[in-house]
């Protein structure tokens, strides 16, 4: 049996591929290459999602797992007269969490330029308390481009224009103590987990009782990720996305988190029972929790008309949508639950 559940290489590689919602082509190419190497069938939707299937003994029904390849990011909304760039947010995050961050501006002709996201009053020596008290609102931020530009035309000459995608430095670190710190562990930790699961199933030649689909969605952060491309024979849909450890939460960075209710209401009671039983039978460390400000790809699927039992599981990601952190064990427990559930 292959027992190595975690190798940080895949996670580090995918965290390194900028993929704000709407700009996920490079992530898609990466997945295609990985799945080709593992000799697994897949298809790609018009919208840019990827669906891989492992055939089971019974192909009349299937279980679909999803993880999203898109992340938060920004888009250029204006080339300002001072030759800096205003942005508009992609996805929901606090502006202070990206303040002072290095960015890449991706132009439509394939060029990449570096810059920094600063407030419009970035120096305490110039603006004093005004700099401190400035409202951390998107309109008070601008990208300072690391090119010698002094007027808007200089910026346009580089190929930078309104509508360009902006990605933030992920600042990925893996500590000796097993913590992973990075932007966009939501949901790339789960994408890495699923790629490990697929490799595990292939290496160990596991034949599931029914077909198993893995849907890699690409518009989750804006709400309509898994709204299409789910096979009709899906009887259970399990979104693999982050859990939320923090003050007054039951989740942790060490266990697989199982969400019982989020902002859209309760998840399927019976399916959660099955997942909890699977954890108990296989000594998998799990935590049940509730996330009042969360919506997942399971909801996107349900709102699009899917008729299946649905659940949400995943690694516990601290400081979600900020500079996030989890522990390797949380990803491993998530992988174990997926594998054990597929085998059960
Ligand atoms: Zn997510």
TrEMBL record:
User: Is the Hydrolase keyword given for this protein?
Assistant: yes
* Molecular function terms from GO: aminopeptidase activity; metal ion binding
Give TM segment ranges. none
CDD domains according to UniProt: M42_glucanase_like
Residues reported in the UniProt entry to bind Zn(2+) 1:
68, 186, 241
| Superkingdom per UniProt | Bacteria
Annotated active site: 220 (proton acceptor)
The entry's keywords: Aminopeptidase, Hydrolase, Metal-binding, Protease
Question: In which residues is Zn(2+) 2 bound?
Answer: 186, 221
Name listed for the protein in its UniProt record? Glutamyl aminopeptidase protein
Organism of origin is: Romboutsia ilealis
């Amino acid at each position: 049996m292959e027992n190595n559940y975690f190798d940080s290489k895949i996670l580090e590689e995918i965290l390194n591929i900028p993929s704000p919602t709407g700009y996920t082509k490079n992530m898609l190419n990466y997945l295609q290459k990985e799945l080709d190497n593992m000799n697994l069938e897949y298809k790609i939707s018009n919208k840019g999602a990827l669906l891989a299937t492992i055939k089971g003994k019974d192909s009349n029904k299937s279980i679909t797992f999803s993880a999203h390849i898109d992340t938060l990011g920004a888009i250029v909304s204006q080339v300002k007269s001072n030759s800096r760039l205003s942005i508009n947010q992609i996805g929901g995050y606090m502006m202070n969490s990206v303040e002072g961050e290095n960015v890449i501006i991706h132009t439509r002709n394939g060029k990449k330029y570096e810059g920094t996201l600063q407030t419009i009053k970035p120096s305490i020596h110039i603006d004093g308390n005004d700099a401190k008290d400035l409202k951390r609102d998107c309109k008070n931020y601008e990208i300072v481009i690391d090119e010698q530009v002094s007027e808007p035309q200089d910026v346009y000459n580089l190929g930078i224009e309104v509508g360009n995608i902006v990605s933030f430095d992920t600042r990925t670190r893996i500590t000796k103590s097993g913590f992973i710190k990075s932007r966009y562990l939501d949901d790339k930790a789960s994408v890495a987990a699923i790629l490990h699961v697929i490799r595990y199933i292939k290496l160990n030649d596991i034949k599931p009782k029914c077909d198993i689909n893995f849907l890699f969605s690409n518009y989750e952060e804006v709400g309509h990720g898994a709204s299409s491309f789910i096979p009709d024979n899906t009887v259970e849909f399990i979104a693999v996305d982050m859990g939320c450890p923090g003050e007054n939460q039951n989740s942790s960075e060490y266990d697989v988190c199982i969400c019982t209710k989020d902002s859209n209401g309760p998840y399927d009671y019976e399916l959660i029972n099955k997942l909890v039983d699977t954890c108990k039978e296989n000594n998998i460390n799990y935590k049940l929790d509730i996330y009042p400000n969360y919506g997942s790809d399971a909801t996107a699927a349900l709102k699009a008309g899917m008729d299946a039992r649905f659940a949400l599981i995943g690694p516990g990601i601290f400081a979600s949508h900020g500079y996030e952190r989890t522990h390797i064990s949380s990803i491993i427990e998530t992988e174990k639950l997926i594998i054990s559930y597929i085998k059960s």
